Amino acid sequence: MKDIFDVEGLVTGCGNPVKMRDGMPALRSASCIRALLDAGARFAGKTVTDELAFSLFGQNLHYPLPVNPAAPERYTGGSSCGSAAAVAGGLADIAFGSDTGGSVRAPASFCGLIGLRTTFGRIAIDGTMPLASSFDTVGWFARDIGLYETVGEILLGADTHTTPPTKSVSLATLDELVSGPAEAKEYERMRGQVPLPLARLSGWPFTATPDELYFAFRNLQALEAWEAHGDWIVRHEDSLAPHTRDRFRFALSVDPGIVEPTQELRARFRSEIEALLGDDTMLVLPTVPGASPLKTTPPDVLQTYRERALHLLCLSGLSGLPQITLPLGTVDGAPFGLSLLGPRGSDRALIAMGRRILGNAGTA
């Protein structure tokens, strides 16, 4: 379990030694953890997370960088970095993570795993460190799609959306966010694995531009993260890595006057993407721009990758719709995932489609 989830009798450290030092042992485990343990899972341990779960690559100044077993020279991805590493390395069959801006989907793609960002609010997130309350979701990693389905049955119950998917759509603007020709070729091959009729839209079907959606996500997430942790950060700034502190403090530069129009933009986008999908359509997109960056990647290049990735990852967060990433591809010998984004409440249908795709690809 990512160390933002409460486990009875253990301190929740949230990726920060001062949080660990000052914390008290949890009196009870988070309800999602209890559900899996009650069903017969065995607790194997806590896993490292990016500091306060606010990053995308698994870099935590206070702890060693987790190893990506699928590509050791590359990042594991964050902030659920330890959970992804544990499953990819065979230390655990299942690992819990959280996904606010991409912290299940990105590590799953980087490490060659299955990862689902669940419909917002579908799994209770009690007993979990908040980051951004209107974006935070529970997710999990596994290598085996059958096991992934079993966990979904336990945690999700029956889908509230019951219309089977009959078609898919892809958007050229999103497809073009892949990093280069090799990634585009592999993404095209992966997209061909989806066993549904595909409509490829060259136009952008939403009122807000991709950049406007990205900044809407970034600003709202930052404001909510500061609301959750700002008081503590002011008192303990010296305990934070500089890049973590700066990421939180970005919220102080956001004009409060943009909140209302940004929320209106978000609501409009939610309506538009739900209309695009209707009852029976899945959006096909790259999970991230390509394979995980090399650990030797310069900071400015890493930041460019992060921004391109968040342009893809923010759509599920802003809309609250579920998105699954499947380990279908490789680029330069490293994993590269394909994503399916479905209607609200179609989480288990996405997992079932994942089983079908992985079975057809011979990787289930």
Tell me about this structure.
This protein is of the alpha+beta class and 364 residues long. The chain has one domain (17-361): Amidase signature (AS) enzymes, CATH 3.90.1300.10. The chain contains 12 helices and 8 strands. The protein has helices at residues 17-22, 31-38, 81-88, 105-111, 145-156, 172-175, 181-191, 210-235, 242-249, 259-277, 299-319, 347-361, and strands at residues 94-99, 114-117, 137-142, 167-171, 198-201, 281-286, 323-331, 334-341. The model has no long low-confidence stretch (mean pLDDT 97).
Outline of this structure?
The protein is α+β, with helices and mostly antiparallel strands. It has helices at 17-22, 31-38, 81-88, 105-111, 145-156, 172-175, 181-191, 210-235, 242-249, 259-277, 299-319, 347-361; strands at 94-99, 114-117, 137-142, 167-171, 198-201, 281-286, 323-331, 334-341.
Task: Kindly list the characteristics that best describe this protein.
364 residues; alpha+beta; Amidase signature (AS) enzymes; 8-stranded mixed beta sheet; 12 helices; 8 strands; 40% helix
